[in-house]
Every structure is written in structure tokens, then in C-alpha cells.
Design goal:
about 140 residues, mainly alpha, 6 helices, 2 strands, elongated, Tscrpt_reg_Rrf2, WH-like_DNA-bd_sf, WH_DNA-bd_sf, Transcriptional regulator
Length: about 140
């Protein structure tokens, strides 16, 4: 799991619960307990994929639409983890004189791919609507 995926689920669950309301980025970032830059990075992708609507201007903001509550967590997980190739993920160096350092990256990349596949299977079929129901019924 990563922070952007968590933010996306939080935003979508919140907007689903308050489907008849519109929230500015400032108000929504405060309610989700993140800074507005993080919120805009996530909501940009959510708007682009059609999960939420946005209206610009003085009375604008973010709002749920017909797709929000039905968003599948596997699709969201894929959206927010597919581009996670920035930065260094594995140790080692294919040019190293050490056999382990030369091969560890490939080995761990295979495990990482399997991990991603398992997580996709786990999240497949869970919707924002179900997450919201779980949140609201939690004791």
C-alpha cells in the first residue's frame, strides 16, 4: 500500500458519504488530514479517470459522481502504483563483480511483480461503497 492509494480511497469514501456536497481543495485536504499539494496530485488522477468531478471557480470544488461509489479498489491500486518506478527500488548493480549484487535486482523484481499480482487479486471486487459501509459499521 502507498500513501496516494490511501488518500484516493479516503477521498472517494468521503465524497461518496457527502455525495450532494462540493468541497474546495483546502477544505477537502483538511478533512482528509493531508496537505493541499498531496490532495491535488491524487485528485488530478481521480478527475482524469472520471472517479470524481471538479468545478473551477469561487464556488467550485470536488464532488462525487455516479462512478465514485462503484470504484474498484484494484483499479485504484493499479492507478496509484503503476508509476512507482521513480527512485531506487532494489539493491545491487548488474555491473558489479559480486554475483549476488549482479542478480539480486532481477530476483527481487520477480517477487515484487508477484506481490503486486496478489494485491490486485485481494483488492479486486472491493468498491468504495463497501469500504464506506465497513467504516460506518466499525465499532
Amino acid at each position: 500500500m502507498n500513501l496516494e492509494f490511501n488518500i484516493a480511497v479516503h477521498v472517494l469514501a468521503f465524497l461518496t458519504k457527502h455525495a450532494d456536497e462540493r468541497f474546495s481543495s483546502k477544505a477537502l485536504s483538511e478533512l482528509v488530514c493531508i496537505n493541499p499539494v498531496q490532495l491535488r496530485r491524487v485528485t488530478g488522477k481521480l478527475v482524469e479517470q472520471g472517479y470524481i468531478d471538479t468545478v473551477r471557480g469561487k464556488y467550485g470544488g470536488y464532488q462525487a459522481n455516479v462512478k465514485t461509489a462503484k470504484a474498484d479498489l484494484a483499479d485504484l491500486f493499479q492507478l496509484f502504483t503503476a508509476e512507482r518506478t521513480q527512485g531506487r527500488l532494489f539493491t545491487g548493480n548488474s555491473a558489479s563483480h559480486c554475483e549476488i549484487s549482479r542478480k539480486i535486482g532481477n530476483t527481487m523484481a520477480k517477487h515484487h511483480a508477484k506481490e503486486h499480482e496478489l494485491l490486485m487479486q485481494y483488492y479486486r471486487g472491493f468498491t468504495i461503497e463497501e469500504v464506506l459501509r465497513e467504516i460506518l459499521t466499525a465499532i
